[in-house]
Design goal:
Lipocalin; 1 helix
Length: 302
């Protein structure tokens, strides 16, 4: 497997964590998801789980099973009626099991800061029926707070070691758009974001990333709470990585998933969970496969 790692570097794809000996589909991921409904401030914790399986074509002895967990502190606050500020502080708990053995790595990953501006916040009443719309656009930065250290001058260093880092080692930039429309109790939330990566100090440049999600939800009023089941789709695309201005083979790719979950809110507390099921993907010429993902969160607004 080591000889192959010398030829094939890790890619860089979606969510907050690492993945797979080939594509590395997680370093520096940024995941937005559904935000809690808050008027002034909120703070919370969310847990995300991803798993990948890699099998080298034509050689059953070379494989990888990778498990990537993220415990993330996130929060936000409003400034007036127009501005929304968000922060994401992830901690990684990752395990890579390959034919070469098992590798564990834990620690602080890359922190992201985001500012959104409300272009539209409108409510229209028609008798007992209402239509609510909210459009936010914004941008932010991902900071190189996660450890990244590769000695490219050491002959024992493998390009695959890029996948063993807690961060990307680069300052990256985020663009975000969120549109939410609700007709009485039924709504659709659509989020599109684009991550522009820069080259780090080791001359490695992770490919830019595009993420889009659209979730339909329905609010059910309970005695002292509101339950909102939701379902939809997530699409993620990553461009190829570059090392010393040369394209890294077998990097980049796309992933499309269905997602289903629910949000339960009562008083100032909200609990949510979802399951993400891949239905179309392409990583490392089909040698790496993303498996079922999941997320759980709890938040408090005040």
């Amino acid at each position: 497997m080591k000889k192959i790692f010398l030829l094939i570097a890790c890619a860089f794809f979606f969510a907050e964590s690492y993945a797979c000996p080939f594509c590395g589909c997680g370093v520096g991921n940024f995941y937005m998801g559904l935000l809690p409904n808050f008027k002034n401030k909120f703070i919370g914790v969310r847990y995300q789980y991803m798993r990948y399986h890699t099998q080298i074509t034509g050689d059953a002895t070379q494989f990888g099973n990778d498990y990537y967990k993220t415990v993330e502190l996130w929060g936000g606050f409003n400034i007036g009626s127009k501005w929304q500020m968000l922060a994401f502080v992830p901690y990684q708990i990752n395990t890579q099991k390959t034919d070469d053995g098992t590798k564990n790595i834990n620690g602080l990953s890359d922190i992201s800061l985001l500012a959104n501006y409300r272009l539209l916040n409108k409510t229209k009443m028609n008798g007992s029926k209402s239509t609510q719309q909210q459009l936010l656009v914004g941008g932010g930065v991902k900071l190189p707070t996660g450890k990244y250290k590769i000695d490219t001058h050491n002959p024992d260093t493998e390009l695959g070691d890029v996948n063993s880092q807690l961060g990307t080692g680069s300052v990256d930039f985020l663009l975000n758009t969120t549109y939410d429309v609700r007709f009485n109790k039924f709504g659709i939330n659509t989020t599109v974001n684009y991550k522009i990566n820069t080259t780090n100090n080791e001359d490695y440049h992770f490919g830019n990333r595009f993420n889009a999600s659209s979730l339909a939800y329905y609010q059910v009023s309970l005695k002292k709470a509101v339950l909102a089941p939701n379902a939809g789709f997530i699409y993620q695309h990553s461009e190829a990585n570059h090392f010393n201005n040369e394209k890294v083979d077998q990097t980049g790719g796309y992933l499309a998933m269905t997602v289903a979950g629910a949000e339960l809110s009562f008083k100032n507390m909200a609990i949510g969970a979802n399951v993400q099921l891949p239905f179309s993907q392409n990583f490392a010429s089909g040698q790496t496969e993303s498996k079922t993902r999941g997320m759980l969160h709890v938040s408090f607004s005040f």
